[in-house]
Amino acid sequence: MALSLFALGAEVTPNVREAQEAIENAFVQVLDERHTFKNFTNEKLFLTELSTAVAEDSIIVAAAEPAYFKAFRNFVCNAFSLKCRPNKTISGLIEFVHPELSDDFIAEQASIPATATPLITQDGLYSGFGIKAKKQLLIVLPLDDKRIDYVINNSLFQFVRENMDLSVLGSDPLEGMTMEETGTLARENRRSRGELYDVHLIKRCVKNLASKGLTVALADTKTVDFIGNISTTAVDLSNVVFISAYSVKKGEMSAREYAINLAKGALINSSNNLGAAITKVFAMPDESGMQQYFMYVCIADKENANVAKLTAEADETPPQLIYRAVEELFRMIDTWAQTGYAIPQYADVAVVRPTKVAVKDPKLKIMKIIFGAAVALSGIVSLIISFVANNVYGVL
Structure pTM? Predict the structure, then answer.
């Protein structure tokens, strides 16, 4: 199945590349072959390649980094003659997570084609969309390393599976996977009931592990006691989760590398099927000088290690963050138990602080002008896309 991955932006930073790799890895899970992003800094070349892909490929992914994403999304929609309007689901989520934002800002963030499926981030900001016509999919995604895994896990996989022709594959690699309500809204609903974590998720994970005879080796860190508390008060984990004797000092490793080392080490030094780790809570000052708390969770099988970073939300205490990390760890384990894949997971956290949401970066204004000029100056190319799209998509 033909797939094109296109990115438009000023440069490919490490964060942009990390987001691109997450998308590439996601499609490997579905298509069983690797495709890599083509990066463009020239809008006309981007449109030219896009017009060729529309005529030839089955799945087209267009992406840009967050600072340019709203302008980029409008740019792509204009090229395809797609009419946009604010999506109620996206705007509702943004209003819930970021009540300090203006109505106009929220409306701009929530604007997607009326016939599209929203591919929503954990806080609604920089959400993408997917649209199908006949046997072709157009997908627009943000290259946001802190949001993209959430989009992949919660909506991209589901959108692709529901809309692509799976008959071209030997099997559906995610068949039977249970989809559930996750994210900020679900978590707030649980907290309103006095629940620190999703006990039903953990019970289901234990059931899936036990039914398949699978066990997990968990690295012995300072946060293991929280999992022990769950085991003694809510869900008996004693038959599926075992504490590993493996230990290592963080030393010069980054917190992410440390989490991966712990999970891999726990697996290698045990007879279990999966290694797992949950780090302690780290703290570092943000740009305003305030302490920002974060931690990592990781799972590792014999082939892959997948790690998620969780950052404390406003007013979230370290214990609340730890229980959220524990829940995320069991969600990752459950996905692995259901599918056999250690597929990319997400850090379910509103990572944009209120003081940083309304971006005033002058580069953004310049990029908006460039995108606008590109649409005007590339009218012929846009007409080509629209003509081909109307023949291939029909409804666009």
Answer: 0.52
